[in-house]
């Protein structure tokens, strides 16, 4: 290529208005290196164009997945190799380098920073410290990015051909649960699904039918009838209960098939290593799982009921050949609290069946009919003996009888799920992905904490010993300390430097503090991480209000539950006040039964002339009006003490007469013991 053609090509590149400066520079470089070729259009080679599109899309996906590593690569490049710092160190001038690059730089006899030409201290050049905060942030960012794996065709067995459980011979000793398929959820409903399991959620296309049974609770969990494999109640205290299990856990349970009385959870001491206990230790309250059942009662939500063969007192329990059986949908029509068999208050719930399928013990072909609001006699007796509020199902229940279809069903849309589908990944759940991103940024920010204030670094400074502080915190730490110590003698030729120890390792920072500068790279990283975390939190807060709407029924349930708690607290406070009043009356009776001297002192205390100025002011109500009668009573009860002392104690304790009475009783006991000791000493003499 001759010079004339070279000049023409360069001028053509320079005059092309469609090219940016970077593209012009790249094309000029290609021309100068004699490797310039005309661009291949899509009509010339469509295969290459398709390959370039795939490469471009792959690069875009890679750029989109950079995350924290993209933030770090812009700020933590080594000034020597221009790559992301490996084993980063921070110089006193606050520039970052790779440890290997720095050692090679120093071994060549270069003792100045390649960026700002600031000299390296001899101690730092001989023994540089790795910046562990930057190293941990870089490591966590790299771990959070998964490298794209190559696509390979792998032959996998079809799910239809895979058995539900492992093959087990008659000679097997163990149950065969130790395999990959054990415990996997078969249905595709979330853990907080209300109502029956539909056919579309069942891989068999049948749904969970009434009368279906499993050999244990783990299999029952796999098919979604009742997800907890130990607890008897499944639910959330803010949403409601999805399912319960009747397994004979409480002696107060009463099972009559189409309806049963169910006992809530709690009230038993499970401290230590105890999983179960048959003894009630305290009252049950409408909280946790009991509150979930209460919300299901007030809203009229459907509850799946599973019966276990362990319920020995019920005629409707399944036989041992069918250990765990699904019996359909029930509704909680009433709930209350009453003393149980062990005289503690128990949360009680009346369940009534409301399913379109016939019960396993029924000979009828049709399911349950509309509820006529009849309450069984056993439940009426308990309701009459109930303590506190009796809750009942709402008129507009969520699961109700449809007169047009002559069937049970939803009268409104079922509650939205707060949990994802089984096996859903964070890529399918945007809210979970935002929470994960915000958590990652917050975790990265925890590595940038000041050793003095324990907050995120503001104007960070990295010391030669490898610790990090806020600029203001470090200045305040050594504020008021000079640079040299003043000599005590008249000789001033010998000057001693003031040692300024590092708060982290006690290394001397006197020379470093003189010209300490801010680590701009670290400050930029912190600022970008904070901005990214705020953006994730803002998106998450925008999605939060619409995702979980709060209903008026839930608010009413919370208000009633809080009212019960407030009533119990008020009753306890009244009982405590009565006990204190009885104690005070007893103390006054003891004081009035004293000798003539004490009566004379009491009469003197009653008169305003006998009280000093401060005490009279308190007793007459010139001070705190509520302390007047209490102060007078204390002066009458403890006449041997000065009234000014009692008034001062009342003022110090904020008018708490009970606390002052305890102090005075203790002082009286101490004085009595001292008098006895002096009397013994005189007798011995």
From TrEMBL:
SMART domains: RING, SRA. One of its GO terms (biological process) is protein ubiquitination. It is found in: Nucleus. Residues 78-117, 450-506 form the RING-type domain. Residues 21-69, 410-438, 536-607 are annotated as: Disordered. It comes from Apatococcus fuscideae. Residues 538-551 have a biased composition (Polar residues). Residues 552-566 have a biased composition (Low complexity). PANTHER family: E3 UBIQUITIN-PROTEIN LIGASE UHRF-RELATED, OS04G0289800 PROTEIN. This is RING-type E3 ubiquitin transferase. Residues 203-353 form the YDG domain. Pfam families: SAD_SRA (PF02182), zf-C3HC4 (PF00097), zf-RING_UBOX (PF13445). Residues 567-587 have a biased composition (Acidic residues). GO terms for molecular function: DNA binding; ubiquitin protein ligase activity; zinc ion binding. It comes from the Eukaryota. Gene3D superfamilies: SRA-YDG, Zinc/RING finger domain, C3HC4 (zinc finger). GO terms for cellular component: nucleus. Keywords: DNA-binding, Metal-binding, Nucleus, Transferase, Zinc, Zinc-finger.
């Amino acid at each position: 290529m001759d010079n004339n053609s070279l000049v023409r090509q360069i001028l053509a590149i320079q005059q092309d208005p469609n090219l940016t400066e970077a593209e012009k520079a790249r094309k000029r470089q290609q021309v100068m290196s004699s490797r310039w070729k005309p661009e291949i259009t899509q009509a010339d080679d469509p295969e290459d164009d398709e390959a370039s599109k795939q490469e471009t899309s792959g690069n875009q996906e890679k750029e989109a997945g950079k995350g924290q590593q993209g933030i770090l690569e812009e700020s933590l490049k080594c000034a020597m190799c221009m790559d992301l710092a490996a084993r980063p160190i921070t110089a006193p001038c606050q520039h970052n380098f790779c440890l290997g690059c720095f050692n090679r730089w120093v071994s060549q006899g270069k003792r100045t920073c390649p960026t700002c030409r600031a000299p390296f201290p001899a101690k730092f050049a001989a023994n540089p410290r790795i910046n562990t905060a930057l190293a941990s942030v870089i490591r966590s960012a790299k771990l959070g990015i998964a490298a794209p794996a190559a696509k390979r065709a792998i032959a996998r067995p079809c799910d239809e051909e895979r058995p539900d459980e492992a093959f087990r011979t008659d000679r097997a000793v163990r149950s065969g649960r130790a395999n990959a398929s054990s415990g996997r959820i078969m249905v595709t409903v979330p853990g907080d699904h209300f109502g029956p399991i539909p056919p579309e959620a069942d891989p068999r296309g049948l749904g969970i039918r009434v009368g279906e049974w499993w050999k244990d609770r783990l299999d029952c969990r796999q098919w979604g009838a009742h997800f907890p494999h130990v607890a008897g109640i499944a639910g959330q205290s803010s949403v409601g209960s999805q399912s319960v299990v009747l397994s004979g856990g409480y002696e107060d349970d009463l099972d009559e098939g189409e309806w049963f009385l169910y006992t809530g959870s709690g009230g038993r001491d499970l401290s230590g290593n105890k999983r179960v206990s048959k003894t009630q230790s305290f009252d049950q309250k409408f909280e946790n799982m009991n509150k979930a059942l209460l919300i299901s009662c007030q809203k009229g939500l459907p509850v799946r009921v599973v019966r276990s063969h362990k319920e020995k007192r019920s005629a409707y329990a399944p036989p041992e050949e069918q250990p765990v059986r699904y019996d359909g949908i029930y509704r909680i029509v009433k709930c209350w609290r009453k003393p149980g068999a062990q005289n503690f208050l128990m949360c009680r719930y009346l369940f009534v069946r409301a399913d379109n399928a016939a019960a396993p013990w029924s000979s009828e072909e049709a399911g349950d009919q509309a509820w006529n609001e009849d309450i069984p006699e056993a439940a009426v007796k308990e309701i009459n003996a109930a303590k506190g509020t009796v809750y009942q199902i709402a008129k507009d229940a969520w699961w109700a009888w449809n007169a047009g279809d002559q069937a049970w069903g939803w009268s409104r849309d079922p509650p939205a799920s707060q949990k994802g589908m089984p096996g859903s990944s964070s890529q399918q759940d945007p809210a979970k992905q935002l929470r994960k991103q915000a958590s990652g940024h917050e975790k990265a920010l925890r590595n940038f904490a000041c050793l003095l204030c324990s907050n995120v670094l503001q104007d960070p400074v990295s010391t030669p010993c490898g610790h990090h502080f806020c600029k203001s915190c470090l200045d305040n730490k050594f504020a008021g300390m000079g640079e040299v110590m003043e000599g005590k003698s008249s000789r001033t030729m010998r000057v001693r430097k003031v040692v300024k120890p590092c708060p982290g390792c006690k290394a001397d920072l006197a020379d470093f503090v003189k010209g300490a500068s801010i680590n701009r790279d670290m400050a930029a990283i912190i600022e970008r991480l904070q901005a990214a975390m705020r953006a994730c939190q803002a998106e998450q807060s925008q999605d939060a209000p619409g995702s979980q709407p709060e209903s008026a029924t839930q608010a009413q349930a919370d208000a009633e539950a809080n009212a019960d708690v407030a009533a119990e607290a008020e009753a306890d406070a009244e009982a405590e006040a009565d006990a204190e009043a009885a104690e005070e009356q007893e103390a006054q009776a003891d004081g009035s039964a004293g000798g003539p001297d004490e009566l004379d002192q009491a009469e003197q205390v009653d008169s305003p002339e006998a009280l000093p100025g401060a005490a009279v002011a308190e007793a007459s109500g010139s001070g705190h009006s509520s302390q007047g009668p209490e102060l007078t009573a204390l002066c009458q009860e403890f006449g041997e003490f000065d009234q000014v002392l009692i008034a001062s104690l009342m003022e110090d304790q904020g008018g708490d007469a009970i606390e002052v009475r305890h102090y005075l009783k203790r002082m009286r006991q101490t004085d009595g013991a001292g008098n006895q000791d002096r009397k013994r000493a005189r007798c011995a003499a």
